[in-house]
Structure formats: structure tokens, C-alpha cells
Amino acid sequence: TWGKAMAWDLRGNMDEEVERAVLLKTLTPEQVDQLFPPYPSDHPIIVKEIGSGTSGSEPSNLQAFDLPTETLAALQQNASLLDSALGPAGDGIGSNSWAVSGKLSATGMPLLANDPHLSIQMPSIWYQMDMHCAPKNNACPYEMGGFSFAGVPGIIIGHNDKIAWGFTNTGPDVMDLFIEKVNPDNPNQYEADGKWVDFETRTETLNMVGDKPVTITVRSTRHGPVVSDTYGPLKDTNTDNAKDFEAFKDRAGIPLPDQYVIALAWTALNPSSPFEAIWGFNKAQNWGQFRAAAQDFHVPAQNLLYADTEGNIGYQTPGDIPIRKKGDGRFPVPGWDGEYDWTGFIPFDQLPYTFNPAEGYIDTANNQVAPNDYPYLITTDWDYGYRANRIVDLIKNAPGKIDIPYIQKMQGDKYDANAVTFVPLLLGLNAQLPSDQAAALDLLKNWDYQATADSSSTSVFESFWRLLLPNTFNDCLPRKYWPDGGSRWNEVMRNLANDPTNSFWDDTSTVDSVETSKDIMEKSLADAVKELEGMFGKDPAKWNWGDMHAATCRTQTLGESGVGLSEGLLNRGPFPVGGGEAIIDATGWSVRDGYETNWLPSMRMIVDMGNLSNSVTVHTTGESGHAYSPHYDDMSALWVNIKYYPMLWDQASVKSQAEGHLKFLP
After folding, report:
1. pTM assigned to the model
2. In what side-by-side order are the strands of the sheet with 313-316?
3. How far is CA 364 from the centre of its chain?
């Protein structure tokens, strides 16, 4: 069950698949491509050389199938109902990890770093622990330490006595939406290759708290379960006696099959247990055993980073990644003729991997995994590589041999590459600006682009950015798809910055003028200064990014009850933090909802393969889930300030620093 929950949280591009189809109602294919640009050629890929194979996919026509906006909006809305429990699949939510080999490190042995980005939780999603067999032998082969999830008997991320491993989300496209024709004479059948076949059906009873049980019927096609059966916007019968009801068939306005449903193909619907792979990692003693265990990691696919005490570093893409007969998974497709069916999965031995690459490092930050000539489609919806680019830059330009303090500095790096594009343009505005706007620009003149918590310069830029996006796009996009920030919008705007007369810059509400990038930037700067003055007053020295961008750890039950007493007891914060979207110190926030941190590095870990006892880590909150425990939040101050504590490993160190000792006797 937990594996399915994580697969949903890291589900891939279903939301983008729906969004692109909706946007085609009002935008040209070229404009949609501008909003979903290709991965930038000047940003790094993880694996530079891949073995041979054969391509199973070709680019799809942008108008592969025309669906009503109402259908797609309903589909996405109902899919999003799980987000309150499992978290949204945000653009920025991913992770950083990198490994440097002994030729680059101060110790002559590999160093491995990992910081997974997840939604804020109280208590932390992670539980740090060690498991040592005493003695370790064939009957009891475990000796490992790191981080686990509640209820999982194993170490998810960490190290054993020989190897270390870390995860970041690969984000492969493992979800496709299929439009199925339904037999108008028999609603229990759908079309498959020219024949009517029966839906597979089953009933499920949902026990409702405080109400009677509800029984539902689930229908499935050859592509997967039907996910559009009960969505209100699809109904043609007014079963709810709504006053403003209009039959869907009457308002769709475009040709459709007389009857149809939408089915979901998703790799997570196949039986699998990712924890089989976890236990394999826990026992693995070398690269071969680690890769063998990775074959059991079906879903959700993760970038697997590796280092060992023999001096090796490695990377492996695992998972079930579909091969399509046709199309690239970017849009919903017809399901009745099998033209877009999956034919299987990329063979494991042809998935991207690397072992001891010549450059001496491996960097994964949800960026593109393989070169453009890799013969299989993994996805078209990568993170756009701003974090990865900065990580590689810091590794390649390290002032000397890389050590743990330098990696700590890297994990805390707040360099905003997005600002590098727009600050020079702002400083180049030639308009006679009011004094308050001129003062705001003065804060940007000597800014080092580090989004630190005490930075007024950061406040100016991030407020400008938050207003630049809606000022540019809200007039031409459906409200559901107004920009919310993240690396994709960084890349969209980086491209538009070089095209000052692009049609997206024009404000369609001003019928007598055509705006350019300069007009929209001037307006966004003025709006930003007004916003900051409203928040902090007219003194720019008080415009503090950490106060705007604070992180509050809320318990997901009574901590969000609206009752001040329980919230005060269970929640912690707000903590002023730096960082932001598409930054190594990835503290995410929402252009739509405001600057408050809503996802973050859920832990930070650095493993020294030359001396495991020299490894360090930090949580976001603490080990305990009990609000009265001193360990409920005793790590928060360390986390906020990019500080660490030792990952105690040898038994003598653990015993000498132990707070207690609990022994279970038969």
C-alpha cells in the first residue's frame, strides 16, 4: 500500500498530459510547445553514453485526439482529490543526489550526498535507524544505517558496511490515458480492434465513517481501469436534479464517439513490491549485487546513486518504463484500434546506467537521464536541470579536493539561476522609475544571486517573479493552468526573454496597444514594490526573504484543525528559510498561493566511504512523533541553518553516546 502511495506521489506526467490537451483548445500547437519546451541543451544529463537498443516510440501529433475541455478538467479534478492525502506531483518536488569519486575527494574515497525533496510533514516522513546483526552472518546478513518509512522493515536511503545509496525521482512517463468507444447498444462493452468486448467489472464496498457503506462498480478495459465513470461533467442525465444542468453531449460542441469512457494505463497497477529491491540494497556488498536488486524496483522508478568502500561510484535507472507502438505519451489517445498500445517495458539491461564515469562524478537532480539519441522514450517531462547545472558547476569549480564541509556548502547553496536571466534585463530598464522602484532595483545591482533568508535583494526579485508570470500568462491561459512556478516556467521565461515581441507578452485586455517584454517587466516591478511595501513598509532594509518564505511544519491531522490550542501544541515554526524553486537548497513555494515554503529537503545526508563513522546527516524535525518529547523538534534548528550531526556507526560510538538502552528478552 505504501508503495502505491509513493507511486502516486511520484506519478509522472498525467497532469501534463491532460493540460496539454486542454491548452490545444485555445492555443496553437506551436504555443503549447513553447509552454512545454524541450530539455535545455546547456544543462547536464545524468548518463552520457548508453548501450544500443531499438526505438519503440515516435513523436505524437499534437492533435492525436480531440476531447472536450469539460472531460479533461473533470478527469484532472477527480485525480487530484488524492493529493490532500498523498501530496501533489509538483514540478519542483524531486531531490538532489551526487557522488564524487576518490580522484576528486580529499579522502581519496567516494563521497555520496542525497537530499530528497518532499512536502512538509510533522513529524518527518523519515525515521533514522541502524540495524546491526550481532554477529553479521549468512543467517543474519544485515548491517546498515540510514532512513526508513514508518512500518517498513528496512533502510530506504543510507548505507551498509560496504555500499551507500541515494534516490532521486526519475519521473518516467508511466501513465497514459486511453479514450475507449462504448457500444451504444450495450453499455457493458467497448471496442477493441473492431470488435465489441465486455468490460471487466468488480464491485467494491467503501466503509464510510458516520454513514452507510457505499458500493461502487469498477470497470476495466484492456488498457486499465475506467476513471471517468462517475464524473459529473460527463453526465447526460440530470440525476442530481441540478437547476442549471445541461447534457454533456449538448455542450461538447465537437465530434466524439457516441459513447466513450477514459481508461488509465499505469505501471503501478501491476503487482509489485519495491521493498524487495530495498532489502536487496540493504544486503548488497558490491555493484553487481546492487544492480541485481535494482531489477526488483518496478515502480516508482528512482534514480539510484551508488558508492562503495572499494572506491567505486555508479548510477542505475530502474523501473517498468513502457514501450509504445506509437506516440510519446504527451496526450490522451484513442484506445479502440490498439495503435497506441504498450508493447512491453524497456529491458533492464538497456536502461541507462554508468559505473566509474571518466569525469569522476555523477549528479542526479531529476534532470534528463540519457542523451537525445537514446533509443527509448523515458519521458518528455523532465525537470529542466537548473539544480543539476549548479551542482555540476560547483563540483567542476571546487577550489580544491572536495570534502564534507564543501558538500555541506553545496547542499545549502541558494544560487538562483533564474535571477541571472532577468536581473540584467531589469537593471537595463530605461524608464524614469519612481523613487521606490529605483531603490528596489538598487538592491539588485550587487546581488550575488544567493537567495539567503536575510536578503532584501531576494525579496525584490522573487516578488517580481511571482507577478511577472501572471502578468504574462493569466490573460491567455485557462485559470486551472495559470503558472505556478518551477523549473519548467524558468525555462519558458528564459526562452521568452530572448523574444521580446512574442505574442505571450501582449496583454490581451489592452485592446489599443501591444505590449512587449519591457512593458510587462516594468508593470511587474511596480506591482512587486507595491506588494513589498504592503507587507513590510517602505524601508527596503526590512524586506526580508526569510520572513516571506518561512517554513511551518504542520501535523496533518489536528495540526490543520483550525483550533489554536491543538495547532500550537503540534505544529512547529514558522522558521525563516532561504532557498526556493529550482535551487539546490530547494524550498518550494507557489506563485499562485504565496511565498510560504510548501516542500523542502526532507533530510540531508553525506556518506564518507573512506570512514563510515565520519558520515553526517540532519532531519527536518526530530525522531519522535510525540509532541511532549524533547526529540519532537530538536533537529529543526540544525536543518534550518544547514547544520549536521554524525551518523554514528560503530558500536563503541553508539554506546558511548546512547541516551537509553532497551533490551527485548524472550
Report:
1. 0.89
2. 127-132, 143-148, 157-160, 163-169, 302-308, 313-316, 353-355
3. 13
- What average pLDDT does the segment 7-26 reach? 72
Is the backbone peptide bond immediately before 40 cis, with ω within 30 degrees of 0? no
User: How far apart are the C-alpha atoms of 156 and 126, rounded to whole Å?
Assistant: 9
Phi, psi of 225 (to 5 degrees): -70, 150
- 8 Å CB contact between 299 and 320: yes
Q: Strand runs (DSSP E) across 317-387, as ranges?
A: 322-324, 333-334, 342-345, 353-355, 361-364
Instruction: Report how far residue 479's alpha carbon sits from residue 483's, in angstroms, rounded to the nearest whole number.
Output: 9
Going from the C-alpha of 177 to that of each of 81, 98, 295, 415, 660, the distances in angstroms are 18, 34, 26, 38, 53
Across 282-296, 425-439, 523-537, least confident range = 425-439
Per-residue pLDDT reduced to its tens digit, 152-182: 888 999 999 999 999 998 888 888 888 899 9
H-helix segments, 474-516: 487-497
Helix (H) or strand (E) segment spanning residue 217: strand 214-221
Q: 297: closest CA among 311, 313, 317, 282? A: 317
Whole-number pLDDT of residue 557: 82
Tell me 623's DSSP state.
Answer: S
- For cell 498525467, name the residue: 14
What does each C-alpha distance from 593 to 23, 94, 236, 598 come to in angstroms?
22, 20, 35, 10
Asked if residue 222 lies in contact with residue 192, where contact means CB atoms within 8 angstroms, the answer is yes
